[in-house]
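Retry 2 of 3 after timeout on previous attempt. Resubmitting structure tokens to design endpoint.
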């Protein structure tokens, strides 16, 4: 049964079940879900029945961000967390 099947995730580097891949982006599946699971069952057909057209487009048709932009966003978020942490220490 597919629910019990585990495959190696190329993104994480370890075994995962389908339900993880289906919710990897919180409310959306992993962008790689079709490529990874298509050999086990017709996952694209399953997802097209389950997702709205908007969800499908957000998940599979949006152009991914460039890696440098993603890195800059992560650096900025880390700076904001550090600043926020520093401000909470000042209040003590």
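Retry 2 succeeded. Sequence:
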């Amino acid at each position: 049964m597919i629910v019990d099947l585990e495959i190696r995730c190329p993104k994480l580097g370890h075994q995962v079940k389908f339900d993880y891949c289906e919710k990897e982006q919180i409310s959306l599946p992993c962008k790689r879900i079709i490529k990874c699971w298509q050999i086990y069952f017709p996952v694209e057909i399953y997802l097209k029945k389950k997702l709205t057209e908007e969800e499908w487009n957000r998940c599979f048709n949006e152009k991914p961000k460039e890696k440098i932009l993603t890195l800059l966003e992560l650096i900025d978020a880390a700076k904001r967390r550090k600043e926020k942490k520093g401000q909470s220490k000042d209040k003590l």
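Attempt log closed. The chain has a mean pLDDT of 87.
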